[in-house]
Write a structure and sequence with these properties.
Largest sheet: 4 strands, antiparallel
Helix content: 25-40%
Order of helices and strands: HHEHEHEEHEHEEHEH
Radius of gyration: 24 Å
């Protein structure tokens, strides 16, 4: 299984790797009796038999139940804190947000973005969202301020805020007697940013 390493240290290294992924107590258990989550952790343990600078994981939580998913994600974060670069290929937003510090987005085999999560979020156009019972008047105020991409629906009016200060937009709504139940400037979601970069959908189930 690990022929390139010193056979004399194999037992110690295998035990250390199994302990690292939480499988030492199940070391003598037959592989066929392992759950899918245990099998995933065992595969990661195999990659830890020798010191690594880089570990590549393809959809590491695919098919796992919630508990198995949490265990594998926690394990990946632990490995990364030891100075190992972990490259995760995943289409799940929860995966990306919970375990990644940097992201790369591919489109038809070409890298269209590479950077930190924060850098990716700053690419998106900031929006303002207003919940109100007077959608028509709120829409008119946002139009008068020159805001772009105004959307109306589900009791809300939203628009790209552009260079306008949020407090100025809110003040304009209040002065126009628009009943503001909620005023928010949410950060762009990773789904929106992914679609903006690739034109494709993004499975957001974690």
């Amino acid at each position: 299984m690990d022929a390139t390493a010193d056979p004399g240290t194999s037992t110690a290294r295998v035990s250390a790797a199994l302990e690292r992924v939480g499988l030492l107590a199940a070391a003598k258990k037959h592989y066929r009796a392992y759950s899918l989550g245990m099998k995933q952790r065992l595969a990661i343990a195999a990659s830890l038999l020798q010191p690594r600078e880089l570990i590549i994981l393809d959809e590491p939580t695919n098919g796992l139940d919630p508990q198995g998913t949490r265990e594998v994600r926690a394990l990946i974060r632990e490995i990364a804190t030891d100075g190992v670069t972990v490259l995760v290929s995943s289409h799940l937003l929860a995966e990306v947000e919970q375990i990644c510090s940097h992201v790369g987005v591919m489109r038809t085999g070409r890298l269209v973005f590479q950077g930190t999560l924060e850098e990716m979020r700053t690419r998106g156009a900031a929006r303002v969202e207003v919940r109100t019972t007077d959608l028509e008047r709120a829409e008119g105020v946002l139009e008068s301020l020159g805001l772009a991409d105004i959307r109306v629906g589900n009791g809300e009016v939203s628009a790209q805020i552009g260079e306008q200060a949020p407090e100025a937009v809110n003040r304009a709504l209040v002065l126009a007697d628009v009943p503001v139940a909620r005023f928010d400037t949410p950060r762009p979601s990773l789904e929106d940013l992914f679609v903006e970069l690739t034109g494709e959908g993004f499975d957001v189930d974690g």
